[in-house]
């Protein structure tokens, strides 16, 4: 269970972006969060993924309250989440080849021994060939880079996935392909999903349950 | 910088191209823009070439909107750059693109700068926030453009700039703001206002809706359609099929640098639907349709397969596909889809 309890968060304590938002996601459930741009839904997604410390409120991950944020989050909690952002260009280190981009979470968590096995597996799952894995971000398209970012998010087999406008930059076919990769992984692993978006058609088709950002302040 | 090279005798395209444009829609006379066998390739190190656009061929009439759709990296934006003369020095072009009797591909830089950009072609850019100058207010940029393009002088400039803003529904009380103080939708309107000042007969919108949410997408394309009216033509480059469906009269589908299907929007989005297997796959990938991706990924433009570039991903591939299909009767395919049922069955077969 992933519980967001009365979260107030923002970038200026005097003017929080969101106030008292609560949301609960059951294990294996996929929840779509809809809202217009600028409403604070991405901020909530960042709080849920332990990437932004809320001003008040609690995040409870599988019964345990979050004990830190960003790099201060305990490893076990931090690696419970896989995150995919909207803009692959801004979320990929331009110096890393795609192969190393996907391998980074493994290396950062003392699993370097698994790189040779797991990276090709995930690259294959997201549809990246060996030749593309040797390229750097500026040498691939947005769609190809987002495929690598999704592989990076899944390589530690997280229990929770947070996809913040994962497909906003992508064409229809790549969107469908990446959503299918996420759903295959969830079927296989039982992971829960928070998918943030503004495309109602996509979110309705993708998720078990759709919530509107405006309805979170119960 | 060396200007792009234009190849007259030698064509870089491989497929035969019909003399007249083919189209499912009736083509009204007097096209604003007439693109004939346009090809662009980039010369790379070691005698390698990247064929970004090959044999593009279409007409665009007054009052019409042509949506150029395709996956990212298929050459759409290179085509737009070619029309504005903004290709880098290692580009080689062939064919022609006639606008008002002027060939945009062979025109020199001075002609392009003084008579084309802003005056004959208005560009609505991909990311308006990045297109606007960050250190100047919207008013200052509008006034500069008004001065440059219309020759208006003080004190009339201020009013002309305000009128330009109003035309694009940009609120007057935001004129003194800097680009970073605008929302995505307002930045888009500011950029549209700039594009409209020169009263160009051709509006070129390069991915005008990227990163906007659905309501804003609809509003932005509706406004583009409104500005097109019956005295301009609109070429909209997009990967957003829903946006294309909303306003396009004609749809051109681009794959691996080639236009593989050119048909009326009505036939494309309604009945009988797209006839090229790629176009059909792209449409079926939409969440409101089957939501199934096309297997595989598009080929690299620097290493295109022999023959039909879509063949490696296609369910209908036969030995005929070893040859590049010409654009016949609005579709460039050896096995155009005739009705929906076999296509669905074929999709099923590739998935199994």
What does this structure look like?
The complex is a heterodimer of chains A (218) and B (352). Chain A is an alpha/beta fold. Chain A is built from 8 helices and 9 strands. Chain A has helices spanning 41-48, 75-78, 98-108, 115-126, 130-133, 142-154, 172-189, 200-206, and strands at 2-9, 18-25, 30-34, 56-61, 64-65, 81-84, 160-164, 192-197, 209-212. In chain A, the strands form 2 sheets. A 5-stranded parallel sheet of chain A has the order 6-7-8-3-9, sandwiched between helices. In chain A, strands 2-1-4-5 form a 4-stranded antiparallel sheet. Chain B has 352 residues and is an alpha/beta fold. Chain B has a single domain (5-120, 200-351), classed as Rossmann fold (3-Layer(aba) Sandwich). Helix content of chain B is 30%, strand content 21%. Chain B has 11 helices and 11 strands. Chain B has helices spanning 76-83, 109-116, 128-131, 138-150, 156-167, 184-196, 214-228, 241-247, 265-269, 277-284, 340-351, and strands at 5-7, 31-43, 49-61, 65-69, 91-99, 102-103, 121-124, 202-206, 233-238, 250-255, 258-264. In chain B, strand 5 and strand 6 form a beta hairpin.
Briefly, what is this?
Chain A has 8 helices and 9 strands. The two termini of chain A are 19 Å apart. Helices cover 35% and strands 22% of the residues of chain A.
């Amino acid at each position: 269970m992933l519980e967001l309890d009365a979260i107030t968060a923002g970038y200026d304590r005097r003017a929080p972006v969101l106030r008292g938002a609560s949301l609960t996601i059951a294990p294996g459930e996929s929840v779509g969060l809809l809202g217009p741009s600028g409403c604070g839904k991405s901020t909530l997604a960042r709080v849920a993924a332990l990437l932004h410390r809320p001003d008040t409120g609690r995040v409870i991950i599988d019964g345990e309250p979050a004990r830190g944020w960003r790099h201060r989050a305990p490893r076990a909690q931090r690696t419970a989440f896989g995150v995919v952002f909207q803009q692959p260009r801004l979320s990929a280190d331009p110096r890393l080849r795609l192969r190393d981009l996907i391998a980074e979470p493994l290396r950062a968590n003392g699993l370097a021994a698994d790189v040779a096995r797991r990276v090709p597996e995930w690259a294959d799952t997201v549809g990246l060939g060996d030749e593309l894995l040797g390229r750097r971000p500026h040498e691939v398209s947005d769609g190809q880079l987002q495929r690598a970012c999704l592989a990076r998010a899944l390589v530690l087999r997280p229990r929770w996935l947070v996809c913040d406008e994962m497909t906003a930059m992508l064409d229809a076919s790549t969107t469908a392909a990446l959503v299918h990769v996420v759903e295959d992984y969830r079927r296989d692993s039982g992971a829960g999903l928070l998918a943030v978006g503004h495309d109602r058609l996509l979110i309705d088709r993708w998720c078990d349950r759709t919530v509107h950002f405006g309805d979170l302040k119960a | 910088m060396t200007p792009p090279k234009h190849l007259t005798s030698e064509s870089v395209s491989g497929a035969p191209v019909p003399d007249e444009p083919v189209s499912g829609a009736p083509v009204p006379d007097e096209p604003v823009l007439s693109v004939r066998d346009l090809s662009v390739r980039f010369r790379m190190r070691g005698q390698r070439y990247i064929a970004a656009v090959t044999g593009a061929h279409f007409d665009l009439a007054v009052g019409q909107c042509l949506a150029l759709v395709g996956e990212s990296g298929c050459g759409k934006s290179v085509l737009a750059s070619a029309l504005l003369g903004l290709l880098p020095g290692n580009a080689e072009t062939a064919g022609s693109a006639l606008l008002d009797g002027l060939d945009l591909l062979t025109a020199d830089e001075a002609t392009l700068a003084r008579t084309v950009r802003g005056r004959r072609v208005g560009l609505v850019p991909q990311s308006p926030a990045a297109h606007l100058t960050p250190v100047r207010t919207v008013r200052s940029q509008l006034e500069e453009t008004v001065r440059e393009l219309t020759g208006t002088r003080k004190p009339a400039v201020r009013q002309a700039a305000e009128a330009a803003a109003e035309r694009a529904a940009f609120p007057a009380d935001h004129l003194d703001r800097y680009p970073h103080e605008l929302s995505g939708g307002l930045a888009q309107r500011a950029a549209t206002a700039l594009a409209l000042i020169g009263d160009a007969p051709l509006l070129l919108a390069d991915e005008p809706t990227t990163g906007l949410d659905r309501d804003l997408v609809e509003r932005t394309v509706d406004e583009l359609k409104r500005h097109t009216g019956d005295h301009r033509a609109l070429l909209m480059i997009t990967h957003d099929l829903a946006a294309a469906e909303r306003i396009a009269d004609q749809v051109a589908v681009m794959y691996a640098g080639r236009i593989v299907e050119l048909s009326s929007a009505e036939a494309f989005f309604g009945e009988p639907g797209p006839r090229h297997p790629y176009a059909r796959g792209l449409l079926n990938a939409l969440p409101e349709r089957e939501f199934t991706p096309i297997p595989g990924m598009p080929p690299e433009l620097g290493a295109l397969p022999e023959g039909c570039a879509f063949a490696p991903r296609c369910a209908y591939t036969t030995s005929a596909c070893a040859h590049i299909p010409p654009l016949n009767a609005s579709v460039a395919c050896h096995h155009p889809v005739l009705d929906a049922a076999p296509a669905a069955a074929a999709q099923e077969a590739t998935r199994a």
